[in-house]
Design a protein that fits this description.
single chain; about 575 residues; alpha+beta; six-stranded antiparallel sheet; about 20% helix; about 35% strand; binds alpha-D-galactopyranuronic acid
């Protein structure tokens, strides 16, 4: 399952989720021994999953192979991988078809003249981290391995829509929109074809034209600007969505879109012409039983909890989340911050200047923008997290990513999370200054928050940047679930509850802060080298199984009080 709705009705889609053959390749000999022709021995594994939840593989990092047969009626097929962690090579019937790097975004391969019958799909997957990888060797989350989201085969026939995106400008009163659709059409047949191509928005056909394409040819259609009146705006209270359909004589593709405006005015962030307070959590897509192959039912439950908590936004720390999860955010009106997995503490200054790493990061931004472009819930693109933002290398990387995202990222704000408020030199290249700080945990006390904000205000003024909005993108402290003492000390649930409650009050009252993302929603698996209790990052306001700590009530009380002041 890839989306919350059917993307195709005419187009045949076969999901390859289920049991696959599986073999770890500890010595990395599989390619030399041509395992892509047939796995010499194997066990079984469920796809999607992370292999680190299988017996004996809790800490396995390295290469592993997957194989499965499937039947197809043949012709032109598109193999779609929603996410594979992290590096992978793909073979069909023993023939190499391609490579992909990066664990959290969709990629696909189109193959022509595939014969009718049974086929063998083989993947070599590798989750090793090294000096060229993203993330790097140390990250405060677990770089699982595996085919972590769905795999499917699509049969493309005639002229098919292989990509589409939607741009729009809203009138000042938000009642009208000028919209432009871009669609990439592809002739999947072996003869030249003319077909009718139309775009339907809801029940209305808003674009219609004949398209002629040679066999195998691709053409990108960019519509003229189309005016739409009486728009039903998407926002967090009324998340109105429109169905959109791209139809040719042979093929179809469905999506959902929404209209909303996100912008900065002075040091405030406005959603649909109203200043917006972001009340959110940082969430890892991680669960002790499933790792990052996160089941849809649990996503739904996480969102029920987020809503109960009075939150209106989530930061997808620290990588693009499943598309179905983002669909659910669209449906519920929860604003989302989507970022790529550049988790800075693990990045040396050299790594920030390493051409392979910088290029991989740029490619990850390109994929994130490509596949998540139409989601109205995504209001922030996050470039990176806690990199050495006081260095030239970081500045160059930030400039590069910022200009790419501003030019190509659609109607969104661009930001990054900085843990160097006093010395960061990249603030010019962000629409919103987002700060990670841990007063009351790693340093200071809860009472050092206000002096910190006062001194940061002075720095922003001296840099002439005090008219940029600011978010608290991380703060918090750990609590071991069930740990209580007579005194209110670190690691108890009481201490965490008091700290978070205090932080939320200070941030809400500060005129320079537009919102907050608590670190973090739930406890989650960390890197064993960071030597954390139970190998978990324990700063969740729920434990790893989603049982609430005391801070849950405290945060909910604060959020709901602030929310009630809005009405
Ligand atoms: C950082 C980082 C988080 C987490 C947090 C912590 O701010 O961005 O991923 O590691 O610190 O718990 O220390």
């Amino acid at each position: 399952m890839r989306r919350l709705f059917d993307e195709h009705i005419k187009r045949k889609v076969t999901f390859l989720d289920g049991i696959w053959k599986f073999n770890v390749d500890k010595e990395d000999i599989g390619e030399d021994e041509q395992w892509y022709k047939s796995l010499p021995q194997y066990t079984e594994v469920n796809v999607p999953s992370v292999w680190n939840k299988d017996l004996g593989l809790f800490e396995y990092s390295g290469a592993a192979w997957y194989e499965r047969n499937f039947y197809n009626t043949g012709g032109t097929i598109k193999l779609v991988f929603e996410a594979v962690m992290t590096e992978c090579k793909v073979w069909l019937d023993g023939e190499y078809i391609g490579y992909h790097y990066g664990g959290f975004c969709q990629f696909d391969f189109i193959l022509r003249d595939v014969k009718e019958g049974y086929h063998t799909l083989t993947l070599k997957v590798d989750n090793r981290v090294d000096e060229n990888s993203i993330p790097q060797k140390v990250a405060d989350w677990y770089p699982y391995g595996g085919i972590t989201r769905s795999v499917s085969v699509e049969n493309l026939t005639g002229i098919s829509t292989v990509y589409q995106k939607f741009d729009y400008t809203l009138s000042d009163d938000l009642k009208e929109a000028d919209i432009v659709f871009t669609a990439e059409l592809y002739n999947a047949d072996n003869t030249d074809l003319t077909e009718n191509f139309s775009i339907n928005l809801g029940k209305d056909c808003i674009y219609n034209c004949p398209v002629t394409l040679k066999a195998g040819e691709t053409q990108t259609i960019v519509t003229d600007s189309i005016k739409i009146s009486d728009i039903a705006i998407w926002d967090n209270k009324t998340p109105n969505l429109y169905n959109v359909a791209f139809i040719t004589d042979s093929d179809d593709l469905f999506d959902r879109i929404g209209f909303r405006k996100i912008e900065t005015r002075g040091n405030k962030i406005y959603l649909n012409n109203k200043p917006f307070e972001f009340r959110g959590v940082n969430r890892h897509e991680d669960h002790p039983d499933w790792g990052m192959a996160f089941p849809v039912g649990l996503m739904k439950r996480d969102l029920d909890i987020v809503e109960d908590l009075g939150c209106n936004t989530i930061r997808g720390s620290h990588y693009p989340n499943s598309r179905i999860f983002v669909d659910m955010l669209d449906s519920r009106g929860i604003l989302f911050w989507s970022e790529i997995p550049i988790w800075g503490c693990g990045f040396s200054e050299e790594a920030l200047g390493n051409e392979i790493v910088v290029k991989r990061g740029l490619d990850m931004h390109k994929e994130m923008v490509k596949y998540y472009y139409n989601h109205p819930c995504i209001v922030f693109w996050g470039m990176h997290n806690e990199i050495k933002s006081d260095t030239e290398n970081a500045l160059n990387m930030t400039k590069l990513y910022y200009s790419f995202l501003k030019e190509n990222g659609g109607n969104r704000l661009v930001t990054y999370a900085s843990d160097k408020p006093k010395i960061d030199i990249c603030f010019e290249y962000t629409d919103v200054i987002s700060i990670n700080q841990y007063h009351g945990w790693y340093y200071g006390t809860k009472d050092s928050w206000q002096p910190f904000l006062d001194s940061f205000k002075e720095r922003l003024e001296s840099l002439n940047l005090s008219d940029k909005p600011m978010l608290m993108s991380e703060f918090g402290g750990a609590a071991l679930y069930g740990h209580h003492t007579f005194d209110n000390v670190k690691w108890t649930e009481e201490y965490q509850a008091e700290l978070l409650s205090h932080c939320l009050t200070v941030f809400h009252e500060s005129p320079m802060i537009s919102g907050y993302y608590i670190w973090q929603f739930t406890d989650m698996r960390s890197n064993k080298d960071l030597a954390k209790a139970k190998c978990l990052n324990n700063k969740g306001i729920l434990n790893e199984y989603r049982n609430p700590k005391l801070s849950y009530k405290a945060v909910k009380e604060r959020n709901l009080t602030f929310k009630s002041e809005e009405n």
